[in-house]
């Protein structure tokens, strides 16, 4: 069974905490996701049961190879979608929340398509200028 959106949020966060600090404590996860530590403990136990990680109350948690693999994929997906939003001209102040809102609801096929689109724009700066030109022309019409 694939992870639920909520499990994805946890795996994504746990993976980046471990990347950044070398470990992920229940209190760090709770703070990062703005949830109560008891919710974290519950979810971590579920992720342990589903073999994404190994949780020992006093020793903390480690991701299994399966947990690492999906964690990395989720973190990469988040970065890709942020990059996509930036390219299409979304204001920086909306990017994080918008990505949090859509990331769980796209199929991996759609993610791959977005990846190609991002590559398309990154390959040639003229393409991004062209997109910005369309936007500017439209904004000028409204003025
Ligand atoms: Mn995310």
Oligomer: single chain
Q: Approximately how much helix is present in the residues? A: over 70%
Side-by-side strand order of the widest sheet? 1-2
Beta percentage is 5-15%
Biggest sheet features: 2 strands, antiparallel
Low-confidence stretches: none
Q: How many strands?
A: 2
Please tell me how large the radius of gyration is: 19 Å
Mean pLDDT across residues: 94
Shape: elongated
How do the SSEs run, as a string of H and E? Answer: HHHEEHHHH
Distance between the termini: 52 Å
What class would the helix/strand composition place it in? mainly alpha
Number of helices: 7
Structure ligands: manganese (II) ion
Structure description:
With 143 residues, the chain is mostly helical. The chain contains seven helices and two strands. It has helices at 5-21, 26-33, 37-49, 65-87, 92-102, 108-123, 125-142; strands at 53-56, 60-63. A two-stranded antiparallel ribbon has the order 1-2. A hairpin with a 3-residue loop joins strand 1 and strand 2. Helix 1 crosses helix 4 (65-87), helix 4 (65-87) packs across helix 5 (92-102) and helix 6 crosses helix 7 (125-142). The longest helix is centred in the middle third of the chain and has 23 residues, at 65-87. The radius of gyration is 19 Å and the shape is elongated. The mean pLDDT is 94. The protein binds manganese (II) ion. Manganese (II) ion is lined by residues 12, 78, 99-100, 103. Manganese (II) ion (MN) binds next to helix 5.
């Amino acid at each position: 069974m694939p992870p639920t959106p909520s499990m994805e949020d946890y795996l994504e966060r746990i993976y980046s905490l471990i990347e950044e600090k070398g470990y992920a404590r229940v209190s760090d996860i709770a703070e990062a996701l703005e949830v109560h530590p008891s919710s974290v403990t519950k979810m971590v136990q579920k992720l342990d049961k589903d073999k994404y990680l190994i949780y020992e109350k006093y020793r903390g948690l480690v991701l299994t190879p399966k947990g690492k693999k999906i964690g990395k994929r989720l973190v990469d997906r988040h970065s890709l979608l942020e990059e996509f939003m930036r390219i299409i001209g979304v204001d920086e102040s909306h990017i994080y929340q918008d990505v949090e809102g859509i990331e769980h609801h796209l199929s991996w096929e759609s993610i791959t398509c977005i990846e190609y689109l991002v590559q398309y724009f990154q390959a040639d700066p003229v393409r991004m200028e062209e997109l910005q030109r369309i936007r500017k022309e439209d904004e000028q019409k409204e003025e």
